[in-house]
Amino acid sequence: MLKATIDADIFRESIDAIAALVTECRMHVEPDRLYTRAVDTANVAMVSLQVKKEAFETYQATKEELGLDIAKLKNMLGMMGKGDKLDLSLPEGGHRMEIAFNRYRYALTLLDVNTIRKDPNPPTIELPGKVILTGEALQAAIKAASMVSDKIALGIDPDNKFFYMVAEGDTDHIRLELGQSEVESLTLVEVRSLFSLDYLKDMGRVMGKAEKVEIHLGVNHPVKFSFDFADRNGHIDYLLAPRIEAE
Amino acid sequence: MRFIDFSRYCERLEAMSGRLETIELVSEMLALLTEGELPVVVRFVTGRIFPDWSPLKVGIGPNLLYEAVAYVVGEKKAAVVEEINRTGDAGKAIEHLIATKEQTSFFRTELETTEVYQEFEAIARTEGKGSQREKILSLRKLFGNASPLEARYLARLVLEELRIGVGEGNVRDAIARAFHVDSASVEHAYQAINDLGEVARLAKQGEEALQGVAIQLFRPVKMMLAQQGTIAEMVQDHGEVAAEFKYDGSRFQFHKQGSTCRIYSRKLEDVTDALPDIVRQLLPVVKADVILDGEVIAVKEGKPRPFQFVLRRFRRKHEVSSYTEEIELVPHVFDILYHNGQSLIDSPLRERRVHLEKVISGFIAPQLKSSTVNSLETFYQQALDAGHEGIMVKDLASRYTPGVRGKSWVKIKPEVDTLDLAVIGAEWGEGRRAHFFGSFLLACQDKGKLLPVGKVATGINDETLALLYEMFKDLIVSQSGKEVFLEPSIVFEVGYSEIQQSPNYESGYALRFPRFVRVRDDKRVEEIDSLDSIRQRYEKRS
């Protein structure tokens, strides 16, 4: 059972965050939060999202697992205006969720959860490098890199004390260095990994709205982007598997 | 069975050449399968995903496949195409790409053969807006979880060409061996239900289950086929024989139950909607639930028109009404396979004809019963005079054997030297023909493998060349220089003056003065001429 009211923008951010990687997911409803964890079809990128009860204006729920058609929900978002309130309601064991906003009552048929991939287990990995910067700066860097290449290297240079991003194209090259004074926080360990910009571009659009994003890095290891939304009542982690540079 | 185990079997089969060891290995694999897995794996090993009678088609061309693989390996599609061009084998190229991909992933989930099938079924069932996207997502999921070896066979399954040299005959014998049933019962059941996968499942239950199968309405069976032969031989072998005109039209199978009917082509496609006039003619005059076999011919001012006119209509699925006026189509029915709940395929032709004459008035192909060569030859001459291709001479005691090209039916027609061959490649044309394919690489079949026998470039006018380009452009598997490799799915009828031995082509033979005659829209690649028949023709001449 779920009965809740939420600000349309918070709902939009949540759906956009998931839609960057998958078209459907298993949403876990619990008395104090909603959460989901999903992996893209090629098992390269993961998202985990949590929205606490406090992010809602009203929230009443019992434990349940819903199959959400994220692609459909994303289409529906276009109909909602800024500042709209959204009423979500799903009766106990129901197969349709009613989403009411701005005089619309949208009945969304839920997917059979058994047809959706099970929650992936996030890998247990140690990522010693950490840097915190604004979502805006991160998104700008991703955009810049994609002008010259389809890959980007992220790393920390502890000797010169900066965080860097490098994109090497066939002909062009772009590099961005941010020193300790230009980021919120920087751990000085040597790390570097290469990532596909195809995934990062989609994630970047979501991260661009975050006030700050924590980036966790290792050597030829996945990257983890961690950020809050909805006054810290919502939290998103993205994990992206690296590309291993050919010898 | 896990898909990796299936792939390992395929790899071993691919390296084998002997028939007996192939049968033994396939039967070893079949014995390991559950009833649920059997139909799937049996179809997979013959390079099929769905039974031949099923309307489901995966419908994924090379382009969509390459796009999905590109995503999984984290490369541009062009890089995938380049690798395939380099190796000339999509399966092996994709295997290599997956093995050397730079993009890592968090994990792989083991693929089960049945899950792979379900994914294909989901792909086949997606239609309408956004279906391309859905198909790509499914493919990404498959290849995202595939090991390099699995990817080789997944790619080939998608393209429906497994290239492991396992033919239907081998699988039939392997089923018999794995489940200790008679090979003839397996063959018989296969003829009736037209799905070796389902037959294997029944064989596992035992001989009795196999015996219990029967031909079913709205599940088309393969058509019985004829060999080349002579009137004298037939009379000598069988005494009294039946002779019918050999119509230059298109074979069709008519299924009727109550007031509904469906029409299937020789390739077992449902062509009912393309042939409303045949429905209109047959439905009112057929007085029972039946499956009929016949030929549709095109008639203009009382004269039969060439084959192409019929095919044009078979191919047309839209705007049928405007076409029905141009060409008048007439059905000629000559056999019956099913009558009010009773299968007739095991009854002799003589009895089937009695049933046929009971259930339908009109549209029955005239039949001459005779045991003298003279009267049959006169009949043959009449057929030619009336503008037909020749005659069919049939053993009156013979059963209807679906899909079999046996000695019970023999076709008598003026000698023409043509072969039906699969188009497996092409070359870009030059000058005026630069944007089209100028010549086509042809192949015959040998135990499930396609072997090149030469190229054809003559006999194709500019208009046809443009049409052919339209047909082939989405079948391009890879390119290297001017050469293009094509997914084998289109059959050409090709004329020639002589067959020669040749070291230039893998088949060991080449055609002298090959010329394009027509596209055989009604034939599947599995039905093209075999290396054996080319060898026989060669030996007959020399």
Beta strands of chain A, count: 18
Largest sheet of chain B: 7 strands, antiparallel
CATH class of the largest domain in chain A: Alpha Beta
Q: What is the N-to-C succession of helices and strands of chain A?
A: EHEEEEEHEEEEHEEEEEHEEE
The CATH topology of the largest domain in chain A is DNA Polymerase III, Chain A, domain 2
Helix content bin of chain A: 10-25%
Low-confidence stretches of chain B: none
Provide the residue-averaged pLDDT of chain B: 89
Overall body shape of chain A? elongated
Separation, N- and C-terminal Cα atoms of chain A:
54 Å
Mean pLDDT across residues of chain A: 93
Query: For the terminal residues of chain B, how far apart are their CA atoms?
Result: 50 Å
Rounded to an integer in angstroms, the radius of gyration calculated over CA atoms of chain A is: 19 Å
Share of helix of chain B, binned: 40-55%
Q: What this model shows, in words?
A:
The complex is a heterodimer of chains A (247) and B (542). Chain A has 247 residues and is α+β, with helices and mostly antiparallel strands. Chain A has four helices and 18 strands. In chain A, the strands form three sheets. Chain A has a nine-stranded antiparallel beta sheet. The mean pLDDT of chain A is 93. Chain B is of the alpha+beta class. Helix content of chain B is 41%, strand content 23%. In chain B, strands 12, 13, 14, 15, 16, 17 and 20 form a seven-stranded antiparallel beta sheet that branches. In chain B, strands 3, 4, 5, 6, 7 and 8 form a six-stranded antiparallel beta sheet that branches. In chain B, helix 4 crosses helix 5 (77-87). The mean pLDDT of chain B is 89. Classes of the chains: A alpha+beta (247), B alpha+beta (542). The A-B interface holds A 23, 39, 41-44, 46, 120-121, 123, 150, 194, 196, 198, 222, 239, 241-246 and B 71-72, 74, 76, 100, 102-109, 137, 140-141, 143-145.
